[in-house]
Design goal:
Blueprint lengths: L16 E5 L4 E5 L5 E5 L3 H12 L4 E5 L3 H9 L5 E3 L2 E6 L3 H21 L12 H28 L10 E5 L6 H9 L4 E5 L7 H4 L4 H11 L4 E4 L2 H15 L2 E3 L4 E4 L2 E7 L6 H9 L1 H11 L4 E8 L6 H14 L7 E8 L6 H21 L7 E4 L4 H10 L2 E4 L9 H8 L5 E5 L5 H4 L4 E3 L4 H12 L3 H17 L2 H19 L1
Bound molecules: 6-O-phosphono-alpha-D-glucopyranose.
């Protein structure tokens, strides 16, 4: 294990570390009395990057300013990172229109949809001038703005002035063009990795995007030193895509791409969680207060916790449940499906329509199957993290039936705090399936009959079998912790830099 600071060598030889992600670790606001306050982000990516930040205490985390108070912090942290809790952050303010185009017109509808395979291709997408505008006036300027912020942070960092090569860790699909802009500004010296947290489809999947986008993205990614994913499958797809789209020399076995005189490594590091953090949350008052609301629902608890995202396959989840009730009417009143769905990306028309479709699907199942004393589905479309964790503790069956998912951390978070030997029903297309599939009931997320059978099998599974699987799931998550996720990347950074000499 590489040791921090002067004691150790390798990636911790004093290199300044900069983390870059669109969504930041904290959001600032003002209280009524006018004092600045902040709330800490809870999403999976944020938890993971917190672990990097903790590991390398001097790391600076650059993220977009998303509130008015964030903008003030951005102003104040232009030259010096802003210290909050145990983090050093630097927020970047973007031009509002550019950010809107990047977030609502390019990254989330287009890239997200292509990478998760969400388009019904006979009808969508319909690309044109608007796409080009979103790319040129949104995606590129926002990415360039981030690159400028990285340069500023490095200039301000005492160790950044030439003593050790900086390490720049860029995260996710909103920021694919940063390696390109960083090389323009900083040359070959810094180590750059880009971690893709969502699926990477096969080369054919990328042919939906206009050539200037898919080639632009790939050329930029091949200016990084490591391109990282959650699964081997995504890493292999990336190597093949570089080969087929750009004609890059590709070694699929070793995960190496050569292009334009550079060597780029494609690597898989399955992201994880901090089990201790979730144990702490599970024992907290905020979570305990929520427990009765989920534990008092009639019968066994079937649970899903997700953002209201089309990739999560919420509608088919309800349909499969409805089908299970049709086939096994004796289950009426014996189970309640609690769906905690956090609102997400509501300014994008497809997401707004999806939220409506979810409500409709719930109403349909409830109408058909309800009894005077029982409601089959309880839907909560709000952001209530303590209640989600309370539900993690209490579920009998957890449904994760994503169309596709980079990893899906809900499956991991829930496994470590569940108290009921709960059974996981897991989509074969979630990245988590590579690690957890063996202990779950696997489903094809499109097959409603298979979904219905899986839910029934999980609800009626003998106690001993449930226990065996739940223990194995718990063990599996604890064996690959978030620390290991960070260490594996730092080891590869050392190996890469040693090779380059
Ligand atoms: C996924 C993405 C993240 C993103 C998160 C929440 O996990 O991989 O990059 O931050 O969803 O989405 P949002 O659009 O709210 O940031």
């Amino acid at each position: 294990m590489v040791v921090q600071g002067a004691d150790g060598g390798g990636a911790n030889d004093g290199s300044p570390i900069v983390i870059v992600s669109n969504r930041g670790p904290v959001t600032f606001s003002r209280t009524e009395s006018g004092t600045r306050t902040h709330s800490r982000g809870a999403g999976g990516l944020v938890t993971a990057l917190n672990a990097v930040s903790r590991r390398q205490k001097e790391a600076v985390w650059i993220a977009s300013a998303t509130s008015d108070e964030d903008a003030s912090v951005a102003e104040e942290s232009r030259d010096e990172p802003y210290e909050v809790e145990d983090l050093r952050v630097s927020l970047v303010e973007h031009d509002e229109d550019a950010y809107d185009l990047m977030y609502n017109n390019l990254a989330n509808p287009l890239l997200w949809f292509v990478q998760h395979g969400l388009y019904g291709l006979p009808y969508a997408p319909a690309l044109g001038d608007d796409t080009r505008r979103a790319w040129e006036k949104g995606y590129l300027p926002v990415n360039e703005n981030f690159a400028a912020a990285v340069e500023r942070v490095l200039e301000g960092s005492p160790r950044g002035r030439g003593e050790a090569e900086p390490i720049i860790l860029v995260h996710d699909y909103q920021l694919y063009m940063i390696p390109h802009f960083l090389r323009e500004r900083l040359g070959e010296e810094p180590f750059i990795s880009l971690f893709v947290h969502i699926p990477w489809p096969d080369p054919e999947g990328w042919r939906v995007l206009p050539r200037y986008i898919r080639e632009g993205i790939l050329r930029s990614l091949l200016q990084a030193d490591v391109v990282a994913f959650h699964t081997q499958r995504y890493a292999r797809n990336f190597v093949r895509t570089a080969n087929e789209v750009l004609g890059a020399e590709a070694d699929e076995e070793r995960g190496v791409v050569r292009y334009d005189g550079r060597e780029v490594w494609a690597r898989a590091y399955p992201i994880s969680i901090d089990p201790g953090e979730f144990e702490g949350l599970a024992a907290s008052d905020a979570v305990r207060e929520q427990e009765s609301s989920v534990r008092n629902l009639p019968g066994k608890l079937l649970l899903r916790i997700d953002r209201t995202d089309l990739s999560k396959n919420v509608l088919r989840g309800f349909q499969a449940y409805g089908r299970m009730l049709e086939r096994h009417p004796a289950m009426k009143g014996e189970v309640t499906f609690f769906a905690g769905l956090q609102p997400s990306r509501g300014d994008i028309p497809e997401y707004a329509a999806y939220a409506e479709a979810i409500q409709k699907a719930v109403d349909e199942v409830n109408e058909v199957h309800c009894t005077p004393s029982w409601q089959p589905i309880v839907l909560s479309m709000e952001d209530n993290f303590p209640r989600s964790v309370a539900a993690y503790k209490a579920y009998d069956v957890l449904l994760v039936n994503a169309v596709r998912d980079g990893m899906n951390l809900v499956a991991k978070e829930a496994a470590v705090v569940n108290e009921e030997n709960g059974v996981l029903v897991l989509s074969e297309n979630a990245g988590a399936h590579e690690e957890l599939g063996e202990f779950a009931i696997t489903i094809n997320p499109f097959d409603l009959d298979e979904g219905a059978d899986a839910i029934y099998a999980a609800l009626t599974m003998p106690e001993e079998e449930k226990k065996r699987r739940a223990e194995a799931l718990n063990r599996q998550v604890r064996e690959n912790t978030i620390e290991e996720w960070v260490e594996a990347q730092l080891r590869d950074i050392d190996a890469y830099r040693e090779r380059r000499g």
